[in-house]
Specification:
With 176 residues, the protein is mainly α. 45% of the residues lie in helices and 6% in strands. It has two domains: 128 residues, no CATH class; 43 residues, no CATH class. The radius of gyration is 22 Å and the shape is elongated.
Amino acid sequence: MMINFKIRGVEKVQEYLASLPYGATKIALTALTEYVIGDETHGLKHPDPYKYASRAKAYGYTGAKFENGNPVPAGYFSAKQFRYVAAITKGFTMRGENRTGNSTDAWQYVEVSPYNIKIVNPEPGAYWTRDDSGQARQPANVGWRKVSAVIEANIKGAMKHATAEVNNYLKSKGKK
């Protein structure tokens, strides 16, 4: 699944990139992207804090019923889904942090062309936990931010980082 997102304020970034001298645009674009992807302290690779939310709270009562007419517990869309989850968890749900971090750690960028960089996450779970249109209710309920919100929160720092990298590049070329 491919993650797609829109960023507000892209015009400012485009104006900044257009104002740069020849050769510095690629440096700035790479620096912006690397900052937005980030690490454990900021950006897309920064995991949101763990918080438990039950399926019942996230999805509520769906109206599904067992074959005998009894209601399926809240949070499940069918008796088949309830049995499947019960079989996986052997009849009880594990409470507590059991995240692997694979989805958060998988953020990377791919250079499509010299001036076109795409941020990607090959992990399938990223679509359900972070995508602007694909995020499930349960991750949203526990406060996991969508991709565009993370980028918006980090764009100011990304611009500062890109400016510093461009200044270093220009200094190394003997330009002001």
